[in-house]
Design a protein that fits this description.
The protein has about 325 residues and is mainly β. Among the domains are: about 115-195, Immunoglobulin-like (Sandwich), CATH 2.60.40; about 195-333. The chain is built from one helix and 21 strands. It has one helix at about 5-25; strands spanning about 45-50, 60-65, 80-90, 95-100, 120-125, 130-135, 145-150, 150-155, 160-170, 175-180, 185-190, 200-205, 210-215, 225-230, 240-245, 250-260, 270-275, 285-295, 300-310, 320, 330. The strands form six sheets. The chain has a five-stranded antiparallel β-sheet with strand order 15-16-12-18-19, with no helix packed on it. Strands 13, 14, 17, 20 and 21 form a five-stranded antiparallel β-sheet that branches. The longest helix is centred in the N-terminal third of the chain and has 23 residues, at about 5-25. It is globular, with a radius of gyration of 37 Å. It starts with a helix and ends with a strand. It comes from Falsiruegeria litorea. This is Translocase.
Length: about 325
């Protein structure tokens, strides 16, 4: 059995300790000497990019060899807000206290993209064309949509994020918009001074319709010199251009026929038709397309088209549409 004297001694000591703790918490301020921050230095930071596979809105880097410092930039003091809250004393009575709190840091919508700037350049090319070059180092092997005067087509950059494509211009003050999605892209411009010397017919569509513009210049038959289309082995005075690739998500494709009307040595007409082979990918489907027609000196005309493909029993046949675009009328110089 523990002696009563020891029990009283322990109990008294415990009460004293509790009393001192209460007084120190509610009455006696505690003074702590300020500690001066240890000097720290900044070393050079080395930024090394990860292997980029699918960059969306930002770039990721490895940061090596960096040490923080106690120094901070001379920024303006943040605005303080007065905040009122309820607190409770040791017996549960509510007390009102007022103190200053810092406002929340606003969200910065512009996420830095180190080394991810997209650069577009344009140069003049023959036949009133524009050579568009895209340099997007953080968007290698990425789908990109190009817009020009209503034309829309999709391409894919190479592994280094570069793309070069030649586009027949549809306006003298040609504007090209490059869109990688999520609001990321660039704009380029080029003056096309000789555009009025050419006639152009274009067709654009979505999906695997496989449309082709066939131009038979001055009575040329199929397969003869003057039959101009994307798969021709012979040449004519005009030129066929294909824009876009099928092997992308939701592909948008364009085909354009151009003829130098102002410098032609022939007079007559160029018969134009839109043709496609019926395949397992397009049979029995409806496609929406747009035609663009530009004659020398005339404004650009556009028309919406709705095309229904034959059912799949016609696979392997060719569909020829002769009246969707007007023939070109050529007068010799």
């Amino acid at each position: 059995m523990i002696p009563k004297l020891k029990i009283l001694t322990v109990g008294g000591t415990l009460c004293c300790a509790l009393g001192i703790g209460y007084l120190m918490q509610h009455s006696v301020p505690i003074y702590r000497a300020p500690q001066s921050p240890k000097p720290m230095s900044i070393q050079q930071a080395v930024l090394e990019p990860h292997g980029v596979s699918d960059v969306d809105d930002y770039a990721i880097f490895d940061v090596q060899g960096i040490t923080l410092t106690s120094a901070r930039p001379n920024l303006p003091a943040p605005r303080r807000l007065s905040h009122v809250s309820l607190e409770y004393d040791h017996v549960g009575r509510a007390m009102t206290s007022t103190h200053d709190v810092l406002p929340q840091t606003p969200f910065d919508p512009d996420i830095p993209q180190l080394g991810c700037a997209i650069t577009t350049t344009t140069t003049a090319a023959p036949m009133a064309n524009v050579a568009l070059s895209i340099d997007a180092p953080c968007y290698g092997n990425q789908r990109v949509t190009v817009h020009h005067s209503g034309l829309i087509f999709t391409e894919t950059t190479d592994l280094e994020g570069q793309l070069k494509v030649t586009i027949p211009a549809l306006s003298e003050n040609a504007v090209f918009v490059v869109d990688f999605g999520n609001g990321i892209g660039a704009v380029a411009m080029r003056q096309v001074e000789d555009l009025a010397e050419f006639g152009r017919v274009a067709l654009q569509w979505d999906g695997p319709a496989g449309f082709q513009i066939h131009a038979r210049e001055f009575g040329a038959g199929y397969g003869e010199t003057g039959h101009v289309w994307s798969g021709a082995t012979t040449q004519g005075q005009g030129m066929s251009t294909q824009l876009g690739i099928v092997d992308t998500l939701a592909p948008k494709l364009v085909e354009i026929y151009s003829y130098p009307m102002a410098g032609s040595d022939h007079s007559g007409s160029v018969a134009l038709s839109i043709e496609t082979e019926v395949t397992n990918d397009n049979c029995g489907r409806d496609f929406v397309a747009q035609s663009f027609e530009m004659r020398a000196g005339d404004p650009l005309r556009t028309r919406d088209l709705s095309l229904s493909m034959p059912n799949c029993t016609a696979t392997g046949d060719f569909l020829v549409l002769n009246n969707l675009v007007e023939d070109l009328k050529i007068a010799s110089k």
